[in-house]
Amino acid sequence: MATKDQFSFLGGEPKPENSTLRPMDIQLKQESASPKESIPSGQTGLPWDTRGASFDSFTSTFLLVVSSPRRAFRLMSPGGGILRPMHFALVGMCVGGIGLFLLNLAATVLLNPSASTANSQASVQLGLTGLILIIGIPISMLGLLLQAMVLHYCLRLTGSGKRGFEATYRVIAYATGSNWVLVAIPFIGVVIQPIWQVCEIILGLAVVHESSVGRVVFAVLLPIFMVILLGVLLVALTALIVSVSP
Q: Quick check: 28 pLDDT over 50?
């Protein structure tokens, strides 16, 4: 007597292939049939971190941070030390300072019809620029460190400093180095640079520390409020001393 399996090629009910497979074999077969989705492995690093110090990596990092700060600081690793971002900030400050000097030099030459006057003023500007670079760069690096310390303390007060001081410093250094290049843009560079730098720092800290923009804005404004409050207290104390003195 013919069975159903013998006529399965005619359209009968086929025998299940997985009837003798164990549950573990079925699971492995399903996983091999459908490829897994790629899961991001976290921050991959900015070009300056991954490629090393070069003109190409500086330009790529600068354009990424300035044009798309949220994407840039999602890529940025919150760890890895502070030397590389410090180096980036130093290069950005030098590029912006030299660019600003060249703009002032060109304006001096174009606006002064007298060649001797233009040469003397250009010499003075060159000397001042060199003095600023020699003295100002170490002060700027120290100021960058102090700024990160104060801002990270304010982030901790608002419950936003999740990733630690290193992540805060890296955001500030990359934002500062990138935006200092904007100073070299004629006429509008010195105006848009501080505004966009603050915006980038706020967006970057919110992304890196996984906090809300409102909390980060409050943390950024908190030192200003404290300075204003301290100034008001000093004025009130001075007025009180003057009023009670004979």
A: no
